[in-house]
Amino acid sequence: MLDAGFFQRWMAAAAAAVDREADRLTDLDSTIGDADHGANMRRGFAAVTAALEAEPQPTPGAVLLVAGRRLVSTVGGASGPLYGTLLRRAGKALGDAAEVTPQALAEALGAGVAAVAQLGGAAAGDKTMLDALEPGVDALGRGGDFAVAARAAAEGAAATVPMLARKGRASYLGERSVGHQDPGATSSALLFAALEEVAA
Ligand code: ADP
Ligand code: MG
């Protein structure tokens, strides 16, 4: 069972991973976007950890609600509202349970992913964060294994390389978006890697 402490550690590990990989995220975004994804994610997750340290939350759902709200209010780019929606919707789905199973987390994240798809109008194969989020969430739902989910999300991010971007800034490039990994899918894979790290 996963309690509020686990979720706080997940958000802290996500912030550390995003901080470590910020230059890479920005490099990817400089190739098919506007070179701010690393800075966006770093600023957003730094605000998330600051908020959770200042005011630890009593339940898993509350941790994700606070994290999602902080992302929306601190990240200006497309990714802020999208990641904010993912975490807020998942937090809402977890309700006020004190502990949740990995399968319940997968279901909640599944609701979050559906909300992201609705907000951004994107689907799997459009070369966005959804291409890592969907396989990660699906894998977690199947076996409840965080390592398997992290691998699925990383493979999903790698699979965006040959895709043609159909949403977001990268879509302005048309065919020139082919051959590069999507920055948002890359950061989504980091969120799953952080989950694996915290569960180990
Ligand atoms: P911006 O594009 O505003 O500069 P970021 O650089 O922080 O924002 O984030 C870019 C990432 O956001 C993309 O790599 C992609 O994964 C994701 N993204 C952009 N638009 C959408 C969308 N409509 N649906 C899903 N994900 C999207
Ligand atoms: Mg950008």
Automatic annotation (TrEMBL):
Query: What is the gene name?
Result: dhaL
Identify this protein by name: Dihydroxyacetone kinase subunit DhaL
Instruction: Give the coiled coil ranges.
Output: none
Gene Ontology molecular function terms on file: kinase activity
Q: Which domain of life is it from?
A: Bacteria
SMART domains according to UniProt: Dak2
Q: Kindly give the InterPro entries that the UniProt entry links to this protein.
A: DhaK_L_YcgS, DhaL_dom, DhaL_dom_sf, Dihydroxyacetone_Kinase
Entry keyword set: Kinase, Transferase
Record-linked NCBIfam families: dha_L_ycgS
Gene3D superfamilies tied to this protein: 1.25.40.340
Note whether Kinase occurs among the keywords: yes
Ranges for the DhaL domain?
5-197
Which Pfam families does the record cross-reference, listed alphabetically?
Dak2
